[in-house]
UniProtKB/TrEMBL annotation:
Belongs to the LysR transcriptional regulatory family. Keywords: DNA-binding, Transcription, Transcription regulation. One of its GO terms (molecular function) is DNA-binding transcription factor activity. Signal peptide: none annotated. It holds the Pfam family LysR_substrate. The lineage of its organism: Bacteria, Bacillati, Bacillota, Bacilli, Bacillales. GO terms for cellular component: cytosol. CDD domains: PBP2_CidR. InterPro entries: HTH-type_LysR_regulators, LysR_HTH_N, LysR_subst-bd, WH-like_DNA-bd_sf, WH_DNA-bd_sf. This is LysR family transcriptional regulator. Residues 1-58 form the HTH lysR-type domain.
Amino acid sequence: MDIKQMTYFVEVVEHGGMTKASKHLYIAQPTISKAIKDLESELAMPLFDRSKRQLVLTDAGEVFYQKCKEILNLFNDLPKEINSLLGLETGHISIGLSAVMNMNQFIEILGEFHQRYPNVTYNLVENGGKMIESQLVNDEIDIGITTLPVDQAIFNSIPLYQEELRLVTHRNHALATRDSVNMKDLINEDFILFNEDFYLNDKIIEATKNAGYIPNTVSKISQWNFIENLLNAHLGISILPENIVKMLDSHFCNIPIDDKSMSWELGVVWKKDKYLSYATRQWIEFMSERL
């Protein structure tokens, strides 16, 4: 069965017969009659009770009529729905967010976008960069905001911003008065790091190995505000991006690290050959302009 057959059937029901339906559709009556017979043959049951003088639907015909109306309404509304998407009147975006980014800044930009496009909805998932990449590969999210570079054979990406990584200590720590440090200065320190899902963990460990040691890690976590609590409890030191450092309170000191590797770049990432909705593409452009 197809849309044309359903249209003929609904017209016959609503005009009370094939004659009036054919006139309304400007189609020969035998064409409509054949379409109805083909439907009944395919469904293996009659749609009209032909024992009556007037056109009467069978029970199956009544059910089929209601379903046909639903299908035709959806079919007729499809162009409007597509135009709504292209006009960004509606849409949905699933975004994976790095847990090591300034979420307040992101939410502020999201709020601006929402004011412009109030019918777009969002699914926000916070994770480490490695998990975000896995979610992208498995089509669990549309785009991710995570550490660059990424595997260019798998992902497309647009850079957003670069920032320095800073040593963060409690203000009473022995290193708190230093103007700068290098990685060798931290050989005897206890480190509070993000867990293995985060590329920041890999970067810090690689830098310490290049300085001749493996860091003594006292805790691994997944939320930067937990690091703040652990620093406040004097459990050790940490290394965090500048944007996160700016959000810490006055109990902490941040110190430049004399090491060129102690910087990173965040960007928007999505899987190659994946279709991005109009809403998603507009969001990427909007965010790129503001970060």
